[in-house]
Design goal:
- The chain is an alpha+beta fold.
- The protein folds into 3 domains: 32 residues; 179 residues, no CATH class; 79 residues, no CATH class.
- Helix content is 50%, strand content 18%.
- It has 9 helices and 10 strands.
- Strands 1, 2, 3, 4, 5, 6, 7, 8, 9 and 10 form a 10-stranded antiparallel beta sheet that branches.
- β2 and β3 form a beta hairpin.
- The longest helix has 62 residues.
- Keywords: Membrane, Transmembrane, Transmembrane helix.
């Protein structure tokens, strides 16, 4: 079976067409995929983090930068990943060099020590709501999707504080941005004594921090496909496509300007032409009055309340300002008005000449 140039061209064209179609379908799915929240109660910052970490799963929490200001953070949000080993009770924070025990054994040896603080270097993923994100994306999804494209990270220091309660044996671990001891913690763990079942994890509620939606992993998988393709096409045809789009936009703007200014010019021209060569104002009023009379006599058009229009027209004609404007219109330059003025002048001349003839 021979494969001629035409068949090869059709095959390449078909593959290209279906490839572009598949890309657009994936892009539409990525754009309009719903974003249901992962936690059943988004306004509660404890239920979802507790269930997630106690199950041994990773907890990704996205914090709003305007609530947790960090030096050198120029993005609108940053994300930190946590993971808790329930067997060893060791907490892992993204970017930290080692795992951290959620409760220090030193409290058992030294009963006079109630608080211990240690500074730990961590790394956060940072991102914005704009870029390729659409306005209706969840804040956490938008920040993380932005990171998948830009890959910006933010190393910073946190203060990890372990405290031991008094008689109630309440153990507590708090993770805060370093240098802000009175600010709300990024993460807090609390447990009564050694009872692991009483372990509770707390994070700030909305709008201070968010968890990714349930469909966030799907969007990540989609963007890993459509983003490299878009970048490749932009690098390959970016200059040509950019010039083409710029030319089309410029042409459309020029056409719009020509049509807009042309329409305005023609409207002004025909308005002046209609004023100069059109019927006089008196003739227009007479025609309108005649039409109203015909409509008023029509039985089927009684519901239009022609009498109300007639009354309004009479009120306008009796108005003093309208009469002054009408007087100005009578002195215009319409042919009908010129003829009427000539007739009036001739009548006045005849009236003035009549007494003189009688005297003679």
């Amino acid at each position: 079976m021979s494969c001629g140039p035409w068949k090869l061209f059709r095959f390449i064209l078909r593959v290209t067409f279906f490839g572009v179609l598949a890309w657009f379908i994936l892009a539409l799915l990525w754009a309009f995929l719903p974003s249901p929240p992962s936690d059943h109660n988004p306004d509660n910052g404890s239920l979802y983090p507790t269930s997630q970490l106690r199950a041994g799963k990773a907890l990704t929490r996205v914090y709003a930068s305007n609530h947790f200001r960090i030096e050198d953070n120029y993005r609108s949000g940053f994300a930190i990943d946590y993971r808790l080993d329930m067997d060893t009770l060791m907490l892992t924070i993204s970017g930290a060099e080692r795992q951290l025990p959620i409760f220090l054994p030193a409290f058992n040896d030294d009963q006079t020590t109630n608080s211990v603080t240690e500074q730990v270097n961590v790394t956060a993923r940072i991102g914005d709501r704009d870029g390729a994100n659409l306005p209706w994306f969840e804040f956490a999804d938008a920040v993380l999707l932005y990171w998948w494209i830009e890959k910006d990270i933010l190393p910073f220091t946190v203060d990890v504080t372990w405290t031991m309660g008094g008689t109630d044996s309440c153990r507590r671990m708090v993770v805060q941005v370093a240098g802000y001891p009175h600010r709300r913690p990024l993460l807090a763990l609390e447990m009564q004594g050694s009872d692991v079942s009483s372990l509770v994890i707390e994070t700030p509620e909305r709008p201070e921090s968010f968890s990714p939606s349930k469909t966030y992993p799907v969007r990540v998988a989609l963007i890993l496909v459509i983003a490299p393709t878009a970048v490749f096409v932009n690098d390959l045809l970016g200059g040509f496509v950019g010039q083409l789009i710029e030319s089309v936009v410029t042409t459309l703007l020029v056409l719009f300007a020509v049509l807009a200014y042309g329409f305005a010019f023609m409207a002004i021209f025909f308005s002046v032409w209609g004023c100069v060569r059109g019927p006089s104002f008196e003739a227009t009023v007479e025609r309108t009055q005649a039409r109203l009379d015909r409509l008023r006599q029509h039985e089927r058009l009684q519901f239009l309340r022609i009498q109300a229009f007639q009354k309004r027209l009479d009120q306008i004609c009796d108005n003093e300002r309208f009469k002054s404007v009408l007087e100005i219109c009578r002195n215009g330059w319409h042919p009908e008005r010129d003829a009427a003025r000539q007739v009036e002048v001739e009548i006045d001349v005849q009236k003035e000449a009549a007494p003189k003839k009688e005297l003679d």
